[in-house]
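Q: Hi! First time doing this. I have a protein sequence and I read that you can turn it into a structure. Is that right? Here it is:
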Amino acid sequence: MFSVIICSIDAAHFSAAEAMYGKIFHGIEWELIHIDDARSLAEGFWRGISRSRGELIILSHDDITIFSPDMPRRLQAHLSICDLVGVAGTTRLIHPAWVFAGPPFVFGQIVHPAGKGWMGIDIYGAPFPLVRNIQALDGMFIAGRREVFERIGFDLQTFDGFHLYDIDFSYRAFLAGMRLGVANDICIFHASIGKFDEAWLKYANRFGEKFFGGQTRHNTRRARCAYVEVETFAQALEVMTPPYWRQQSESTSDNY
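A: Yes, that's right. Below is the predicted 3D structure, encoded as structure tokens:
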């Protein structure tokens, strides 16, 4: 059984997410847990986990659209290999902002609005449908088995706002020996774009103190991810499903 947990105070966003997941899990046992009064995302998600009944748990933002076909089957396959799965992350966490690791240590594919009816696809790295050996995951979409969430938990005191709870949780899971992966074949449109504002910086400093002794390393190489603009989800799916995936052997495609 799948349990989807969403923290949301936006009725329209939540209603759209509820309808989307209802279509995705049609004919599959699942439940949706709505937290509409979270004091922080860590607190809200933890409360949702405690109320949920599923063995496979998804923490989801309320403003995403998943447009991959057969997502539940893909997710189950990835979770047979990994303990936690997201759609973007890094194999080398050197900074509270996971993207600062830069190539060749960042992976994932995310679609954002680009204006005037266009969508922009950020391709950080997608050599395989599933990239393993990940150290930290973006919190837009994180899935795993219940036992992982219950074992690792959330740091409700340090991350008592809406930033860095995801990097803290996934990085601690990595440090505890959990197997993390980025699923490049779960394609998601995210309606918002993150920003490194003063609120984010406050929790970034807390993260740095907790894990790096107040010091973080910066990748000195300037880098940009690949970027493609499209008009439809069908076009995005074509871009985000490279033909060379089909040419890879089964062993290499699952064991990066």
